[in-house]
Amino acid sequence: MSDLALFRRRLLKNPRQVSAIAPSSRTLARAMTLGLGPKSGLVVEFGPGTGRFTEAILARGVPPENVTLFELDEEFVDYLRDRFPRVTVHRLPAQEAPRLVPAGVSTVISGLPLLSMPEDVRQGIVSAAFAILAPRGHYVQFTYGSRPPLPPETISALGLSVNKGHKVWANLPPATVYRFRRA
What is the pLDDT of residues 111-162, one digit of tens each? Predict the structure, then answer.
């Protein structure tokens, strides 16, 4: 089955969880993984879906053994395990990452729809990311909105700084990449 067919089937079955009208584009995947390479160290991905960002992470030269995914959807998990056999795939929420991943991760890439989640869930996901990130690590998140996917008070409460990255027009809908790090 193609990743597009799987995506569409999962979208129809659980639209709130998938929360997108189309899989992320390869252009967005390249923007999300900018700066990664063979010496990036550990990379964790939250909400990989069909693996578009995972594919880009590996294409940048990150060894599969250095990549860990957290995905809730059972069919996506099976698909990811078949497609990327040397990548670690957990069928767990992102908030479980600190229990399973050692601190010192260089980058957390998130395809999760933060803006459609309750504030406490959103804060739990971002807190989990920063619990495993190295002191100079980055949390990379995209959004379809015009503002960062975290409100200013959450950014301040978590002691973060944010850099607005590329606006990716070659995505449906267009998306903007944000990079968060400790202030």
Answer: 998 888 888 999 999 999 999 999 999 999 999 888 899 989 889 988 999 9
- Residue 139's DSSP bridge partners are 108, 180
Number of domains in the chain: 1
Domain housing 79: 3-182
CATH number at 53 reads 3.40.50.150
The Cα–Cα gap between 5 and 74 comes to 15
User: What is this structure's pTM?
Assistant: 0.90
Asked if 163 and 157 touch (Cβ cutoff 8 Å), the reply is no
Q: How many CA atoms does the CB half-sphere of 85 hold within 13 Å? A: 1
Catalogue the E-assigned strands of 4-132: 43-46, 67-70, 88-90, 105-110
